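Dear colleagues,

As part of the handover before I leave the project, I'm documenting each prediction I ran so the next person doesn't have to rerun anything. This entry is a single chain, and its sequence is reproduced below.
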Amino acid sequence: MMRNQKKHFILIILIFISNIVIAQRPNILWITVEDISPTLSFYGDSTSLTPNLDKLASQSLIYKEAFTTVGVCAPSRSSLITGMYPVSIGTHQMRTGKDVFSWGSRDYSGISNAIDVNGDSIPLHSVVTPVDVKCFTEYMRKDGYFCTNNSKTDYQFAAPVTAWDENGNNSHWRNRPIGKPFFSVFNFNTTHESKMWMHRDKPLTVDPESVKLPPYYPDTKIVRQDVARNYSNIEMVDKEIGKLLFDLESDGLLDNTIIFFFSDHGGPLPRGKREHYVSGLNVPFLVRIPGLTDYKYVYDPISFVDLAPTVLSLVDIEIPDHFQGKAFLGKKKNNTLREFIYGSGDRFDETYDRVRSVISKDFVYVKNYYKNLPAYKDNLYRKNIDMTNEMLEMNKNGLLDKNQSYWYRQKKTKEEFYVRDNDPHSLNNLINDKKYKDQIIKHRKALKDWQKEINDIGGMAEKSLFYKMWPNGVQPKANSPIINGSDKLNIIISSDTEGASIAYIISKKDFQPGLDDGWLVYSKPLTLLPGENLYAMTTRIGYEDSEVIKYEN
């Protein structure tokens, strides 16, 4: 009896200590959804009923000027996880490989090729990023955070085993060790573009006659039906998010968890996703900070490259010098406001272009590198949406008005310039209006300076970039780690692969670890207890992992 009481007392003490530790360091929860523009009540559009998001927004910072870097998922997500612009690290072409979910595939043999703008065949591959670039969660794991991703990655490279403690459909903060704070990502795909046709036969919860149409859509039954489908999907995802928030509160974690809510890019309908205008880059963005009892609108512009440094700032971890974003919250907040947001568009699956955009408070500037390519990208994937095909047919038959047909123009001007206040949908190109000459020059210079600063490699032929990443077309492989175990109380692991990280497992079991078997990130000398073995391997983004080295105690 006394023994059980003692165990119970020790358990209470451990829980008490763990709560103190957790209280000292905030948890962070990312709720990410796919393909939603700011078409939500707290942005002035109450078409969808979203009581759970409304409640979250009522206690959050509501960012009005939040933008992704590219209007499509994989390049966008690469900027989220690295704090870098896709055009700077080679993740800008959609898509280079098939690393969409979980850890991704490290075997690229037999995967079909892509075709670049020159008609060259390019093997699908994992992007090799510059040597400094890592998933920012690696820094959090080294600093004691339990990091989980449920479950999409889609970074243009396979997620390294050093990126997450758990990465898959069962990943959850509930699996963390006692005393560890967490950073958890939950991704909801109910609003993804594909659900426009996959949910085609589901009942609509939004009346098609009640939806508002932007001026670039014709008012037809099919258009209204698809727009209502999109709003109905938003209502569905709100219920799913409500369940997650209920779980967080039920676990007693709401008061010590910073919650982010955002979409990976603009909405799934025509002239949203894949676009470099506000319609493709602007996303809903909330941050709920414990203690905030009311909502507050924030008009300071933020970019997706700012999220990685901001999370590190919130948990007081040093921000790496190579990050291209700025922390907008936390102890290391950068108080210099962004004057410009930068967007890009290159290859989207089988369609090709090269476009750069600069968005400021009042204007949108666009530079087109292929003037003779159509503005509309005839992407096969989007043709699964009924209204896409109807609008194409209407344009072919001359049934669209000036605003509706603008997207389908066959040639583009070298530059475009729009006034956001008078023309929020970027339909009236004023590049030749002398009234805006000074602003055009200012935005043109801003783009040029930014491209130089971040080293925009979008002008490099995709095949040349592939061979730079994969010499002779062969995926590079990390060298095995070097283990110095002369002092078993101070085991040191090193690597001679530039830019690589070291993953390890300490276990008494004799097994060969797989891709997701609990790898830890090496950061300091290790100690082995009697009977324990050390397994280690070297990993780098885009590289094939090294062989696993076993060190026996």
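The radius of gyration is 25 Å. The chain is about 25% helix and 15% strand.

All the best with the project,
I.
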